[in-house]
């Protein structure tokens, strides 16, 4: 099969299996250059096939020497379709993680479902007895309401007034004007249902009731706070309402876990990075491009892996935790530095047209976006035919 990037409405419609293999290998090799640290023994990651979840899994597997379980919804290759990048990431993570000598298990399916939760519980009981870290890093656009059977979709919209701005069309490399309409009350509720904290809490309640949480257990989910540049569409919009719900659920779980297990529930605010989810948020591609330019200038830019390694080594299991008045871990403190934010805003005001593509930060953004789908990695012959019949025999373990 000849596999070239297929992009529609900033969504990659395919992935390159061999590129995904190289993508995983590069992160594994980078992790091997980092120091080891004392962390969790058994880790459950809900949403560990890409983005923050994958970075967390690699850091914990290779630097904390933890056993890991991942739950992710992926599509296998079939006929003329390549399968999702996460499908291949799971397979190649397993390939390279064998060297750790630890247990690494993947469950491919609907993490929102009761059935999947019970499957994972059974596996933990049979293999680990308990887990001492649960990471919730799920990014989904829809969720089935098991009470009604209806599929509920999230909506990336403002609240109150429309928002106008520009965004990058990645397929044709152009800058386009965009108007985001305000959400209805029902759309806001639906977004909170899909992207808020209720499913995270359902996971913790299920694991608690099954008796598979360790003494001192920690659970953590990732949020994004951002500054005034992105406030209207992010914290001030439907996404912000979902994040507020996530943070409220963390407080409830923290109270239970601290009393019952001497554990804790944590929220970590991550820096803006390139993920499959982030490019759907209007204005964010331009913001992230300019942010990369400025953070690289000041030598404070981090890859997803570097970012999550620092989170667990220094702030979750180390003594360098930075928190705000709401007890959220501020791993984003470098991004939120006043100087960084000011220069990023200046760049955004200056580059409102195709001149944006001249910035090294924009080039990094576009390259990162391609690489998370297995494209634009060095050493891969993208003109060569890919034997999908052979590769399709590989399955997540």
Helix content: 25-40%
CATH topology-level name of the domain at 13-153 and 191-280 and 302-336 and 383-391: Rossmann fold
Number of beta strands? 12
Proper CATH architecture of the domain at 13-153 and 191-280 and 302-336 and 383-391: 3-Layer(aba) Sandwich
Adjacency order of strands in the biggest sheet? 5-4-3-6-11-12
Give the low-pLDDT segments.
none
Number of continuous helical runs = 12
Q: Termini, distance in Å?
A: 25 Å
Secondary-structure element order, N to C: EEHEHEHEHEEEEEHHEHEHHHHH
Strand content: 15-25%
Mean pLDDT: 94
Q: Which CATH class of the domain at 13-153 and 191-280 and 302-336 and 383-391?
A: Alpha Beta
Fourth-level CATH superfamily of the domain at 13-153 and 191-280 and 302-336 and 383-391: NAD(P)-binding Rossmann-like Domain
Radius of gyration: 20 Å
Coarse shape: globular
* Class by SSE composition: alpha/beta
Q: Characterize the largest beta sheet: strand count, sense, and whether it forms a barrel.
A: 6 strands, parallel
């Amino acid at each position: 099969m000849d596999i070239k990037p297929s992009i529609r409405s900033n969504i990659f419609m395919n992935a390159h299996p061999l590129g995904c293999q190289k993508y995983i290998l590069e992160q594994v090799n980078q992790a091997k250059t980092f120091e080891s640290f004392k962390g969790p023994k058994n880790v459950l990651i809900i949403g560990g096939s890409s983005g923050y979840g994958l970075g967390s899994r690699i850091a914990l597997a290779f630097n904390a020497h933890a056993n890991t379980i991942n739950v992710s919804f992926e599509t296998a290759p079939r006929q003329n379709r390549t399968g999702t990048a996460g499908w291949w990431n799971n397979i190649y993570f397993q390939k390279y993680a064998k060297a750790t000598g630890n247990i690494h298990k993947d469950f491919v399916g609907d993490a929102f479902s009761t059935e999947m939760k019970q499957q994972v519980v059974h596996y933990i009981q049979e293999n680990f007895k308990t887990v001492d870290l649960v990471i919730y890093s799920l990014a989904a656009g829809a969720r089935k309401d098991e009470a009604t059977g209806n599929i509920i979709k999230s909506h990336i919209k403002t609240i109150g007034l429309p928002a106008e701005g520009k965004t990058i069309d990645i397929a044709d490399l152009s800058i386009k004007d965009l108007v985001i309409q305000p959400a209805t009350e029902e759309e806001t509720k639906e977004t909170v249902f899909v992207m808020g904290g209720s499913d995270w809490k359902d996971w913790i309640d299920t694991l608690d009731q099954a008796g598979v949480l360790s003494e001192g257990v920690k659970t953590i989910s990732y949020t994004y706070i951002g500054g005034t540049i992105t406030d209207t569409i992010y914290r001030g919009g439907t996404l912000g309402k979902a994040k507020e719900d996530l943070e409220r659920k963390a407080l409830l779980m923290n109270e239970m876990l601290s009393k019952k297990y001497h554990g804790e529930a944590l929220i970590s605010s991550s820096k803006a990075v390139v993920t499959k989810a982030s490019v759907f948020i209007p204005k964010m591609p331009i913001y992230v491009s300019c942010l990369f330019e400025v953070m690289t200038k000041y030598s404070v830019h981090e890859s997803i892996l570097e970012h999550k390694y620092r989170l667990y080594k220094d702030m979750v299991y180390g003594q360098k935790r930075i928190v705000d008045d709401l007890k959220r871990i501020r791993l984003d403190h470098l991004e939120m530095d006043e100087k960084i934010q000011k220069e990023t805003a200046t760049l955004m005001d200056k580059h409102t047209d195709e001149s944006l593509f001249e910035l090294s930060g924009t080039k990094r953004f576009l390259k990162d976006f391609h690489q998370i789908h297995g494209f634009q990695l060095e050493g891969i012959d993208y003109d060569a035919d890919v034997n999908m019949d052979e590769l399709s025999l590989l399955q997540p373990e």
